[in-house]
Amino acid sequence: MVRIAALSDIHGNLPALAAVHKAVDAVRPDYVAICGDLVFNGPDPAGTLALVKELERAGAFVTLGNTDLAVGDGDFTAAFPWFTDGAPDAYQVAAEWARDQIGDDGIDYLRRLPSERRLRVGDDLILFCHGSPGSLTDGLGTDLDAVVTMERVGRTDAKVIVCGHTHMPEVREVGWRTIVNDGSAGYVFDGDPTASWALIEIDEGAVKAEIRRTEYDAMAAANAVSERGLPGDVYRAATIRTGKLVR
User: Fold this and answer.
1) What is the mean pLDDT of residues 109-133?
2) Cβ distance 170 to 220 under 8 Å?
3) C-alpha–C-alpha distance, residues 80 and 66, integer Å
4) What domains does the chain contain, in order, with CATH numbers?
């Protein structure tokens, strides 16, 4: 049996990542995957990136997220294509602040990240991505039309698609594929202000996956965002504190 721990959408929330790191260590998985959106929005992008790099050195698969494009390259249209009139100033200021915090080495690191990673377990292919196969920004939310979902998952031969982006954790079967959306390890939207991640077990072709929740000091993280004082931080802090998207 192979066990994989997956997390994503940390968004610069180091206390949440540190708590998930401890929880993941406790289950001793064979592999760890970190599926993008590492530093944007949260109070400690530099500390978060340092821990992500530490996990990568220990063998974790790390992939790019759409907000990593905003921070690393300043490409706001690619990062946020749903804003047809351009990304709001609050997004641009937050990305520029994170860029200053992580410095040139951090920017270079984000720019080198692949958009996808793959792992073969026996005859089964596992895909790690941010939004969906082939896209950083097309998510796999449960509100999608079934035809759209099938089109998006049909872009890969992978039996298991591990993703994030929607900040809504879930495990779902789509035909012969399993979608594992680990939610968010730092900026979750489902109303539970804990850090979410996923544990996947593959045993002779059988796939079992579950969402895990890890408590951390969300109030302290929210206060740290508030104290930063950037445009939009009052909403970011409320999102971290409540576990619901506030904007």
Assistant:
1) 97
2) no
3) 7
4) 2-242 (3.60.21.10)
Residue 127 tokens read as 């895909």
Looking at this protein, which amino acid is placed at residue 51?
Answer: L
Per-residue pLDDT reduced to its tens digit, 51-60? 999 999 999 9
- Of 139, 188, 193, which Cα lies nearest the Cα of 161? 139
d(CA 230, CA 163): 29
How far is residue 33's CA from residue 242's CA, in Å, rounded to a whole number?
26
Rounded to whole angstroms, the Cα distance separating 247 from 237 reads 10
**Do 35 and 128 contact (CB within 8 A), yes or no?**
yes
- H/E element, 84: none
In residues, how long is the chain? 247
The kind and range of the H/E element at 199 are strand 195-203
In angstroms, the Cα distances linking 121 to 18, 97, 107, 160, 164 are 28, 40, 32, 10, 21
Beta-carbon neighbour count of residue 141 at 10 Å? 16
> Is 164 in a helix, a strand, or coil?
coil
Model pTM score: 0.97
pLDDT (tens digit per residue) in 223-238: 999 999 999 999 999 9
Whole-Å CA distances, 38 to 17, 88, 109, 185, 213? 10, 20, 11, 10, 18
